[in-house]
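#data-curation
PF: Archiving a pair of folding outputs for the training set. Convention for this channel: one message per protein, sequence first, structure tokens after, nothing in between. First:
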Amino acid sequence: MMHAPLTAWPSAVSAEAYDTAVAVTPALNRLVHALAADTPFLSKHLKQVVEGDDFTRRLLELHTSPGAPLPSPLPPAFRAAPPAALGIYRYDYFMQDPPSPGSPPAPTVCQVELNTIAASFGCLGARVRDVHALTVATGLGPPGVTVDDLPANDAEDRLAAGLAAGHAAYIADDRSRGLEGGLPALPVVVVQPGERNVYDQMLLGLALLRATDGQVPLQRLSLAQLAAWGTVDPATNAMVVRLPTDETSAAAVAGEGGQWATPITVYRVSVVYFRAGYTPNDYPTDAEWAARASLHASDAIAVPTVGVQLVGTKKVQQVLTAAGEVERYLEPADAAAVRSTFMPQLSLAPGAEGDANAATAMADVDAWVLKPQREGGGNNLYGADVAAALRRMDPVERGGWVLMRRILPVRVPNVVVRAGVGRTVDVVCELGVFGVYLAQAGGEVTINEASGTLLRSKQADAEDGGVAAGVAVLDSVRLVR
């Protein structure tokens, strides 16, 4: 067993930048929710992408499909749609120095991306803050730093509270419809076979147990397991999981998928929280796609829905930087706050505009990052690779990528610790702010908040990649005023 990679002490972050990133979170939560409901917007702007991107095409087809017709007459216990919408997001930022006099204006808090699926490391990030608080309190941190300089980080508890509230909404709807007494309902986290980030997920499960007085265990299952063991009940539209009771047959059916923490072997899925499903590698066969489609059609509260996942594509984020787009969904003050964090982004869609934008990037490759419609880190291209890729791609493939003005993050010194060995280096810090959003079926928003933070740092000369990709390490915030 080995510790997670981390820094020796908390990294310096501008208090003004930190406050800006946290304060804009509720507006971003509303924006994501509104965009996910705007199917014409998603279809219009992802049209060019899906011509050269089979993964995004399948997601968009699933989102826009009318689905199977409802039974007629509807069975008394049939729930045609989830009783609530729950979102767990993470908005990532770099901080950069103010532009020098005479330079073009640029934000100092720069949004890197919206993470609308599998926003991870909330629990481990909160634990690293506690480790650093102990380091500072015992005099092992940088001179002059006190525990008061470290903001509280309640991501673990707030994310668990969001899952608990989603589960409670499902149960409350059961109660209002007189459906108590049937199969029990439990939340499920969808994980990758051979999951590496298991400890962050297990900590979230333990936090959920604390939040529900031990009544609601979080089940861990892979898409393959859900395909093998889950079916949509035609009488209720619930996703019903029937776990095999023979461990040998369970392993034979689904390999190294998740595991479960309850003696209950048959249950409905109340909330399905995806910590997998964001990459084509998570769908190696049609069985995984069938499981995703079944969950999408069922009454389980999906975190995220397919529509919300599509909002997290780089193309949608690029479109939002255009004048007037954010303003269609938010009040002026909120739209201005969100827009203040945007870096310039350019379309590479086939046609004259995409050709011109590609030429702009090839003329100054160090000023732009080339980004595909993928999550998980390690996918972006920089420097000479930008020009090489743009020359190689045909217009259709190129349309699946976007250009983003490169951020020049503030550098700070720290000690990076991997496998028990520390190295003193300059690092750049990426601040993630978690957001939780819960809207009831009738439209009432009962949760909309910033829900803790995550700081990841990497050696200043490293380019793309996160903690799971082996490039970044876990860190925590030390506010500098």
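PF: Second:
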Amino acid sequence: MSTQTSTSQQATNDQGQESDDDVYSQPRTPRRTPMACQFCRGRKLKCDGRQTCANCQRRGIACTYVPIQK
């Protein structure tokens, strides 16, 4: 009878772990930058949206943001 008790407790623990895994099973969606700088837009690079983005900082160029007119 002690094996049945440990088996039922193990099944309960397994179910508890599944519910925790469900929270993490959805893929994380990265935040979108509202606007890319001119250089990143022209080269179709991922812009991080900072005042001087990482791509422009790495290349040592001026980072400029111009709003898109629709």
